[in-house]
Amino acid sequence: MSDKLKAASGEQQEKQEIAINEKNFPSKAAAIHEIIRIEGKKELERDSFALLWSAIAAGLSIGASLIGKGIFHAKLPDTPASFLLENIGYTFGFIIVIMARQQLFTENTVTPVLPIMQKPSRQNFILLFRLWGLVLLGNLIGTGIAAYSFIHMPVFDAATRAAFISIAQSVMDNSSGEMFANGIFSGWIIATMVWMMPSAGGAKIWVIFLMTYLVALCDLTHIVVGSVEIFYLVFNGSLPWQQFIYPFAIPTLAGNIIGGTFIFALISHAQIRSDLAHQPKKSDKVDSNLPPSHK
Asked: Keyword annotations for this protein (predicted)?
């Protein structure tokens, strides 16, 4: 890889990857921050074609959210409990994408942003916008292919296709302001999920399920999942292209970025900076060799 793709981090390059030990940090949150920051630095330096193909795969995979929710919507009886079961389907695409380590735009509103906050150099900002552009482009290509396939391939029955339309039209019932506000909360929840993953251990799939299920229950807007739904309306002739761009895509994208980057990532980074700036002096630390009564 060319040196031009190296993210500036303010630290010397090391041949061996440093294992993150919580004892070396002032708090557990600081250790998690460092894990995500290192992961983000790797993402910033990835090959452009690797990012694009991974993002296209994620766009295709996230189509499973519309499939799952649509099938439940079509097959379940019209009862209040059906709403709870139907939205389980929304989590399917996220589970596939995240467990398969594919590139999802809303994950990247926090992971590669932490290296930028540590070292806000021009080079790092260029790498961030390159990453965002490639991942968003790939996600939209993948969701477009998925939506087009759902329409033209003889896979789904008439009831499921009608459910796809109903789900997508419910998104378009939101005003641009509602798209934006819902996108903020959606971006914040997905960023929270990313922050939880390093300490989730074997429960990662449950973290993904619970956090994305919350997004579904609240009917929040998400730029990638929503793109599958709105592309479906565009490709079947129910919606003009202009309405995909606005009132859906621009307000939702802006909301997701603000929720994930300008709210969650900034606040998370601020607490870590505060931790590092106020580490106790050696003389202030508790002597672990003393008996409990003397601590």
From this structure: Membrane, Transmembrane, Transmembrane helix
Answer whether residue 265 shows pLDDT above 70. Answer: yes
The two three-digit tokens of residue 77, written as one number:
């009886």
Cis upstream peptide for 291 (omega within 30°): no
Q: Position 36: which residue type?
A: I
Would you state the structure tokens that stand for residue 106, as one six-digit string? 């809303």
> What would the two tokens of residue 122 be?
């021009």
Q: Say which residue the tokens 């060319």 belong to.
A: 2
Q: What is the DSSP letter of 263?
A: I
Confidence tier at 13 by pLDDT (50, 70, 90): very low
Evaluated on CA atoms 133, 260, 106, 256, the torsion sign reads: negative
Angle at 247 between CA 217 and CA 170, to 5 degrees: 35
CA distance 247 to 231: 13
Tell me the pLDDT band of 275, cut-offs 50, 70 and 90: low
Q: What is the pLDDT of residue 126?
A: 96
Q: What is the DSSP letter of 20?
A: P
Residue 124 class from Cβ within 10 Å (0-12 exposed, 13-18 middle, 19+ buried)? buried
15-53 as b/e, with b when 16 or more CB fall inside 10 Å?
A: eeeeebeeeebbeebbbbbbbbbbbbbebbbbeeeebbb
Distance in angstroms (rounded) separating the CA atoms of residues 190 and 111? 11
Residue 116 contacts residue 124 (beta carbons within 8 Å): yes
Task: Write out the two tokens for 246.
Answer: 């606005």
Report the percent of the chain where pLDDT is more than 90: 70
Average pLDDT of every residue of the chain? 87
Among candidates 136, 131, 67, 135, which has minimal Cα distance to 95?
A: 67
